[in-house]
Amino acid sequence: MNGNRTMWRAAAATAAALAAVTAAQAVGTAATAGGTAVAAGGAATAAPGEGVRITRFLGEQRLPHMMKFEGTTVGGLSGIDRDPRTGTWYLVSDDRWRYDPARFYTGRFGFDRATGAFETVEITGVTTLKRPDGSPYPGFGKPESADPETIRFDARSGRVLWGSEGDRPDETHPGIPLAPMSLGWARRDGGYAGRLPVPAGLRLTEEHRGPRRNFGFEALTFTPDGIAAMVEGPRYEDGDPPTVEHGALTRLTLWSRGGRVRAQYAYPVDRLPEAPEPPSGIADSGVSEILAVDGHRFLALERSWLEGVGYKAKLYEFDIRGATDVLQRDGLAEGGGFRPARKRLVADLGRYADPPQNLESLAWGPRLRTGECTLVTGSDDNFDAREATEFLAFAVRGC
Question: What is the pTM of this model?
Answer without folding.
Answer: 0.89
